[in-house]
Amino acid sequence: MVHYTKSLLVLTLIMLSNSRAAHHHHDHNRCLSAALSHAEQHCTEAGVRLTPIRRAVLELIWQSHRPLGAYAVVEQLPSILGRPIRPPSVYRAIDFLLEMGLIHRLPSYNAFIGCPFPGSEHSDVFMVCRCCGSAAEVSAETLNKSLEDTASRAGFQLETQNIELSGLCASCQQEDSSS
Q: Which of 72, 82, 174, 179 is most deeply packed, by most CB within 10 A?
């Protein structure tokens, strides 16, 4: 049985895609603020703390809509916190963010991307532009149902999934067609 809070229900209704934000020009400061605000709310509801290091790691991962590797996080984190952070602390923060569903790991890139739908069940399907590297997460109930049905017919118990789609985002398609 699934219980939805009012904010989760609204999120579920609009959760079709964050591709407009990722693949189009937008107010990224607003996008980043919204992601951090949702993360704070999600952690509060779960009864856990979004510590300054965890928040800084999340902020770095959300800095652009491009997958960011752990080594890059370790290298860039001092610029946000103003002090060096030991790699084990960064890896623990990444593990926490993954466990809380605030970020996702893109295995083919061995990198992480912020989750626009924290606190909700959804498909882990990512559209990654092969030209500019931007990535967007999309989710659709019909896709979830299709994957569950396929796994069930095969006698397979689906536990996790991660689908990466590679192609050209709308911006890169326009640039490609004009050159």
A: 72
> How crowded is residue 86: how many other Cβ atoms within 10 Å of its Cβ?
9
Q: What angle do the packed helices 70-81 and 87-99 form, to 10 degrees? A: 110
Grade residue 161 by pLDDT with cuts at 50, 70 and 90.
confident
* Alpha carbons 56 and 59: distance in angstroms, whole number: 5
H/E segment holding residue 54? helix 52-62
Domains of the chain, CATH where assigned: 6-178 (1.10.10.10)
Structure tokens of 33?
A: 């603020």
Q: pLDDT tier at 156 (50, 70, 90 boundaries)?
A: very high
Maximum C-alpha span of the chain: 53
Q: Is the pTM for the entire model greater than 0.85?
A: no
